[in-house]
Design brief:
- This protein has one domain.
- It is built from 3 helices and 2 strands; from the N terminus they run H-E-H-E-H.
- It has about 55 residues and is mainly α.
- It is about 50% helix and about 10% strand.
- The radius of gyration is 11 Å and the shape is globular.
Amino acid sequence: GDGENDRELLDWAGFGVAVANAHEDVLARADLVVPSVQEEGVAALLEAYLDSVA
């Protein structure tokens, strides 16, 4: 998540991930903060996950 509209989703998910440049409320709810959108943080997270299950 990155925007205020993602707050409820992060709460619901059970394990919330936010990008580093997310809104402060989203960052406070996140269980994990990855690098910013510009740094392709979500892509890095997905690559790491896929490598771990392959």
